[in-house]
Amino acid sequence: MKNRYEAAKNVFIDSVDIDDYIELDSAGAAYKRLQHSLDKPLKMILLFGKPGTGKSILLNRIFTKLKFQKEIYYFDTPSVTEKEFFHKLFKVLTTQDLPRNTEVNFSALVNFCKELRGKREIIILLDEAQMYGPQMMEKIRLLSDSRSVKFVVSLHKTEDEDLIAKEHFQSRIWEVIELKNATKEDQTAYIHKKLLKKNLFEIANSIKEKDMKLIHTFTKGNYRECNKLLFTIFEICEYYDKNEPIKINYGQIPKRIIEMAALKLGYIHV
Amino acid sequence: MYDIKPLEEEWKKYKRKKMKPWYIFIFVSLFFAVLVPVSLPYYKDSFFRSLKEMTKTKTEIQAQVQPVAKNEHNQSVVLLNGPLTMLEVYPPKEKKEEASLLETEPEAGPYDSAQEVSVLEEEVVPIQAQTSQPAPKKEIQKQKVHLNIIETTSITAYQEVEKRFYESRDVEDALFLAKSYFDQGKYQKAEYWALQTNKVNQNIEESWIIFVKSKLKLGRKNEAIRILTAYVQRTDSKQGKKLLEQIKNGSL
Fold first, then answer.
1. I need a surface site. Which of A177, B75, B184, B228 has the fewest CB within 10 A?
2. Cβ contacts (< 8 Å) between B11 and chain A: which residues?
């Protein structure tokens, strides 16, 4: 039989799999706002937030929900070069692969997009857009000016990326949706729902209110950090369960284990 | 998970570091807890030494108290014993006899005549208005008074005890004042302090007796009988019954 903590541990493997999506009030509000923005005649939408606030999973979710209703494409990994990006874009726009040893003429591409206006409405979800340079972002903006291609740009919120946002986006758009770290209540609901989704009722109940508070203090409500911490907590529990069951309380996750996990991940130091 | 042992060690170190301020706090607390009882006898001896010196120079003190009325001269004698009675718990001989007389009867049950108490409270409202003061730590206050009494005059010593009561609400202080004032013939003050004692603790028979006796001395015989009757009904006090009989007979 699979160790109960092993199952719990696997629940918190960080992924953007839509099956792992947890419906929370805050996330639900962001989803509705993004969906509403996509219906507006906007050229670009900026999805903004610190790493681990759920931007990727939100894009993934909107893509999954709308892929049969709209012409929507999800560029989850940023293209390393401009050439690669325009190859991908060419395929999206023309539904054909670019012939070998050829390059996309940007002016021609813009003109092509202009011709599509009124005929097609293409939505492109660009995740990790902070990886694109300023020149590339300028070209993306020019393409969006054609009004046939709408870009949803997901950006990390750091000082540098703030600069990108200011320089390239602020004057030209748009709808800005900012995702924030979870509150203690949201994070508690997130952890519980994740465990309950896999029928791990006992484990969910073994994380008490004060443990949730401690977890929130360590992770500052960041979903990615929360996943990492919970994964490590259950990894330690799994070890004790297998090797030293005397050291574990099945009714409540010991504070010691949470602190050990926090030490391992560097949230606290000796 | 292969690095659990080093992680456990790291956690132990972390815990020790986290608990360090608590250990220091406990150590300091224990240090003071040990130091105070050890150094206390020294201060106690020095207190008695200075008290002896004070007794030797009694004539000088009396000379200083000359301008004060005769009644107040008596106070100084009582007061030198008074605060000591409270602080050292060695009451003077005559007090002890009186206390033992009262203690021969079993302790009465709670006196819950709200009506009686409210009547009594109404009588002393103007005085009571002065009494509302915050109550800081009792022990510290007692210690301060202990030293002050030696240095100050008898009148101020009484004031110190009164002040201490307003701060600490210590029933022993109020009872001491009631007894002392009664002995000095200051029946109005004795009545007031007996009432204060009863407010804090309604089950001290001695204070009820002083209260009733003070009323009697102030010429309020009917009131004294009424209060004592209510008290006896509530508590079935033999001492109370005896006193009631004496009052009714006029033998007191």
1. B184
2. 256, 259-260, 263
